[in-house]
Specification:
The structure holds two protein chains of two kinds. By secondary structure, chain A is of the alpha+beta class. In chain A, helix 2 (20-44) crosses helix 4 (63-72). Chain A is elongated. In chain B, helix 1 packs across helix 2 (30-40). In chain B, 54% of the residues lie in helices and 14% in strands. Classes of the chains: A alpha+beta, B alpha+beta.
Chain lengths: 899, 112
């Protein structure tokens, strides 16, 4: 019943909300009528009209209060006084404009920075992947469990067996990223594509806007139907968004493909770069070699299935496959990793670290504003005392203060949102770490809710700060002008702890930034083992003269038939290099199958002649690179023994091999390795023995600060391949020869597609870009924190000196030296700074754990930490010096007369 | 906030019930209700204006009373209240409760 009454009254109140003025007049009339009736009653009892009126009034008591009480029945009194408070808050803030501007600016920086970071967190970690039920999407990655578990990739026979036997998944789809050269336009274009098996699209929950996705029979090998699906972007860019392109053909290399579907806008596959999809059967992967591993598998867990259950099931299958195919599947297992982790894994710690850093900045900003508010509340002691005397309760006053600070923080937040949106746009644009294209941080409901939330939270805290330090009870003193230090001690303690907190927070941020800077210094100082400076790199896709095969990759040979020898390329590697070397400024050029630090290296097992120590667990593996003789000179890789290749060794049957020192160290330590022999695959395989003709240094070919795995490198003579990497050493800035190199390649043959043009130095930088970028932002936050906390310390110390003017005057009059006074102030400041520093240092011990993987070769005990502490302490003490000097300028006479 | 009746001479909580009871006689203005209670109780119960009007408006907001503006016996604009169906039910509830409480108190006071 009760709730029904409440509802009815709420309804009536709402109805009458608009007609408040009329309601007030009605109450006036009603009471006036009553008063008149009473008066008439008195008069009829024999009183004079004047007496009757007074008597009626007396009976009524406080008419105004009664009117108000009656009217309140119809209104929301708490809401209306709330509106009043807000109006009042705006008025007070407008009156002290200087204070308000500073406070709002500080808050705008703090809240804006938090909003910016949160919109990133929201876009990446909260909104997550743009697929239906994305939390059930996982990636299956084959690994090998030898000592350390290393990710490898999947083979098609394994993938097929998983798909047939595993019951924990809705379905599995193979996918692999590739590139493909599209023809039939003004000039050929190379586009990133994905080769995917049929269930891929339904697993992601994506349906084509035109046409269809791949059919299961298009996954069958050998595949006869060359079909493709276009991305929305490619369809618009190249085909004018013409829906009739479906069922027509497009050209790549010498092959034609039938377009069967168009994907919706914004969809670029798991790789986030795909412009076109090919059936996995056309990917060129081996379909019957269980040992040929190179792609990954997308899978969707059945509802209610955990990753652990899926992993356990795949473990069982892996063990069965190991028993059935020991040659290829020994020690092989499958990693089940959520797609979200694969997509955001690297970005998550960066974003979370920045989120933590930015919340520290807000805390410092709040501490500063709290300081300002405390200062102001002392000025307002009298106003507050008057309000209390007039009957305002403590709760009411607290509400007033909190309303005021909330208005302050909300205005700050509004300004901060502007700051944030600009910052986030700049951040994602400047970031060397590519954010997935669907991560579009912006203002939405959750970001807005977060911003308002932190604004209100800071507002409440800020309102409590002055309330906590004010003693409401000692009003009489506040009302008197002489009540100078009445709130003094308490206020000191409050302000002092704010300074301590600011110093502590700033120290943590400074140490964090310091560690990152050191870490980046160490990263960029790493010697990759070759000389990246002055080297231009690019990839070239060189078509064959005639015959079949897409330029992007080989067409799988039909089983049972030997692959026909491919026709020659339109231009030989030697001729291409000759054209490039003729470009002015170029001092050397070479071909390489995979550009250092440029991805795309692949590994293989090998065997060393006469080696008896190797077991299945220690089977040697190495990365294979095919290079022309000038490669080592061009990239600046020192030859430790022997020689480079001869031109005549550039044949498929050549038996010369150059190895990195890792190979010789393992099998022939302290021996002359030249002339020793190794073989691809197992020692008892039919592969020919290869003779080591040279030894080069171990270099960081595949990644900085270290190669992802410790396997050494094997170099073979380059063969004419349709896809080549080119390294071009220049005597001038490598970027400046780009145009002339492109022209030279076009002269060699116009059908060659050039892509991925960059410099070796940029590839090196890209390896450390994420850390560098993070360091910049963290440094920015730390600087902001430093500046804010120094302002805070300066403010508090100035205030303390001002409070003690009289005391200093007396001290001077009693013969204290001015230097002594400076020491008193500095000692006070130094004590606060020291306490803050100790807390901050303790806090930053946990910090290095948070930074964890982001740090390279640095611990919390690094010199950088010491330097960061030193910087803060020095700057903070300097902030105390100016107020301290002011203390010495106190004229004892004036200071004492001031009373 | 003003939801508490300030009856003084009335037993706390009874003012609402008395107003509702008065209005069973028909439409009345505030002054009439106050007079009515006083007279019907043989001058035992006095209703203060300070309590009466907030109570009347509270009851109206709750939907137990309806009001119209009319002309009084001496030709003045006055606000007349009457009982709504909800108010009638509420009165029954409160009267029943009052009976129980009053008889219990009486029994208690008469016991030795």
């Amino acid at each position: 019943m009760k709730w029904r009454h409440d509802l009815i009254s709420l309804w009536h109140r709402l109805l009458s909300f608009g007609g408040r003025r009329r309601r007030a007049r009605d109450v006036d009339d009603e009471l006036a009528f009553h008063l008149a009736m009473r008066q008439a009653e008195q008069e009829s009892a024999g009183a004079s009209p004047e007496r009757a009126r007074l008597e009626a009034m007396r009976q009524f008591g406080n008419v105004t209060a009664l009117k108000e009480q009656t009217r309140e029945m119809w209104t929301f009194p708490s809401f209306e006084s709330f509106v009043q408070d807000i109006r009042y808050a705006f008025r007070t803030l407008l009156k002290s404009r200087g204070f308000s501007i500073v406070a709002i600016l500080v808050l705008a920086i703090g809240i804006g920075a938090n909003t910016a970071m949160f919109s990133l967190v929201d876009a990446m970690l909260l909104r997550g992947l743009p697929y239906q039920d994305a939390d059930r999407l996982v990636v299956l990655i084959g690994n090998v469990q030898r000592g350390v578990v290393e990710r490898r990739g999947n083979s098609y026979p394994d993938h097929r067996d998983w798909r047939a036997q595993a019951t924990r998944f809705v379905d599995l789809a193979a996918y692999s990223t590739m590139t493909m050269t599209l023809m039939g336009f003004d000039e050929p274009e190379r586009v990133p594509i994905e080769a995917v098996s049929a269930p891929y699209f339904s697993l992601l929950g994506v349906t084509p806007v035109h046409g269809r996705t791949f059919r299961p029979d298009e996954d069958e090998v050998p595949n006869r139907d060359a079909v493709v699906i276009l991305s929305d972007g490619l369809w618009r860019r190249r085909f004018g968004a013409d829906p009739s392109i479906v069922n027509r053909t497009i050209q790549s290399g010498v092959r034609t493909y039938t377009v069967v579907g168009i994907m919706p806008p914004g969809f670029a596959g798991i790789s986030d770069t795909a412009q076109l999809w090919l059936p996995f059967a056309l990917s060129g992967s081996s379909f019957d070699n269980r040992g040929s591993r190179g792609f990954q598998t997308l899978a969707r867990l059945k509802p209610g299935t955990t990753i652990a259950e899926a992993r356990a099931e795949l473990d069982v299958i892996s063990r069965q496959l190991e028993a059935a195919y020991p040659d290829t599947n020994e020690k092989r297992a499958v990693e089940v990793s959520p797609l979200a982790v694969e997509t955001f894994g690297q970005l998550e710690p960066v974003v979370l670290t920045l989120m933590a850093a930015v919340s520290f900045v807000l805390l410092i900003a709040c501490a500063n504003v709290a300081n300002l508010l405390i200062g102001r509340s002392e000025v307002r002691q009298k106003e507050i005392a008057v309000r209390t005397v007039l009957g305002a309760g403590q709760a009411r006053l607290l509400r007033l203060l909190i309303t005021e600070s909330c208005v302050l923080t909300l205005v700050g937040a509004a300004a901060g949102i502007g700051v944030a949106m600009a910052a986030v746009t700049g951040l994602t644009a400047a970031s060397p770490v590519t954010f997935p294209s669907f991560v579009q941080p912006g203002l939405n409901m959750s970001v807005l809710a977060f911003t308002i939330g932190i604004a209100l939270l800071s507002g409440v805290l800020l309102g409590l700060a002055p309330a906590m330090h004010t003693r409401w009870s000692r009003l009489s003193e506040a009302l008197k002008d002489t009540a100078r230090g009445s709130t003094g001690r308490r206020s000191h303690r409050m302000r002092a702890s704010l300074v301590v907190a600011e110093v502590a927070l700033a120290i943590v941020l400074l140490i964090g930034a310091g560690l990152m800077i050191r870490s980046v210094q160490k990263l960029t100082a790493i010697d990759p083992g070759f000389k990246p400076e002055g080297v231009l790199t690019l990839s070239a896709s060189i078509p064959r003269q005639q015959g079949s095969g897409p330029a992007g990759g080989p067409v799988p040979a039909a089983p049972g038939q030997p692959a026909p020898p491919p026709p020659p390329l339109v231009v030989s590697g030697t001729d291409l290099l000759a054209q490039i070397r003729a470009v002015p400024g170029v001092t050397g050029a070479s071909l390489v199958s995979d550009i250092p630090l440029g991805d795309g290296s692949s590994a293989t097992f090998y065997a060393a002649e006469g080696d008896a120590t190797t077991t299945a667990q220690t089977r040697p593996r190495a990365y294979i690179h095919r290079v022309t003789p000038e490669f080592f000179e061009t990239i600046g890789m020192p030859i430790k023994a022997g020689r480079t290749f001869h031109e005549r060794e550039a044949t498929p049957t050549a038996t010369a091999v150059i190895v990195s020192e890792g190979v010789t160290r393992r099998f022939w330590p302290n021996q002359d390795p030249i002339g020793k022999r190794i073989k691809m695959g197992a020692a008892d395989s039919s592969n020919p023995w290869l003779e080591i003709v040279g030894v080069v240094a171990d270099v960081k070919y595949r990644g900085l600060p270290a190669n992802p795995t410790a396997d050494p490198d094997l170099y073979f003579p380059a063969l004419d391949r349709t896809v080549q990497g080119l390294l071009i050493r220049t005597s001038v800035d490598p970027g400046s020869v780009t145009t002339s190199v492109r022209a030279a390649i076009r002269r060699a043959h116009p059908a060659i597609v050039v892509y991925n043009v960059t410099t070796m130095s940029d590839l090196v930088k890209a390896q450390t870009a994420a850390s560098t970028f993070l360091t910049w932002i963290l440094g920015l936050f730390a600087t902001t924190a430093l500046v804010l906390s120094v302002i805070g310390i300066y403010g508090v110390m100035s205030y303390l000196v001002a409070q003690r003017t009289r005391e200093f005057g007396i001290r001077l009059a009693l013969g204290a030296s001015r230097g002594g006074l400076v020491a008193v102030v500095l000692r006070h400041g130094a004590r606060l700074i020291a306490i803050g520093a100790v807390i901050g240092i303790a806090g930053s011990l946990g910090l290095s754990r948070l930074l964890g993987d982001l740090l390279y070769g640095v611990t919390a005990l690094d010199v950088a930490s010491g330097l960061a502490i030193l910087v803060l302490v020095v700057v903070a003490v300097l902030a105390c010096v100016i107020p301290a000097l002011r203390a010495t300028r106190v004229d004892p006479v004036i200071a004492l007369r001031n009373e | 906030m003003g939801d508490r009746p300030q009856t003084g001479e009335l037993l706390p909580g009874t003012l609402d019930m008395l107003i509702l009871k008065m209005l069973t006689r028909g439409e009345m203005h505030g002054y009439g209700i106050a007079q009515g209670i006083q007279r019907a109780s043989n001058d035992v119960l006095h209703v203060e204006e300070g309590a009466l009007y907030p109570a009347l408006h509270r009851l109206e907001v709750r939907g137990w009373l309806r009001s119209t503006w009319g002309t009084s016996e001496n030709n003045r604009r006055a606000k007349y209240y009457r009982l709504s169906a909800l108010g009638r039910r509420e009165l029954e509830r409160e009267a029943a409760y009052w009976d129980r409480v009053a008889s219990a108190v009486t029994r208690l006071m008469q016991a030795t």
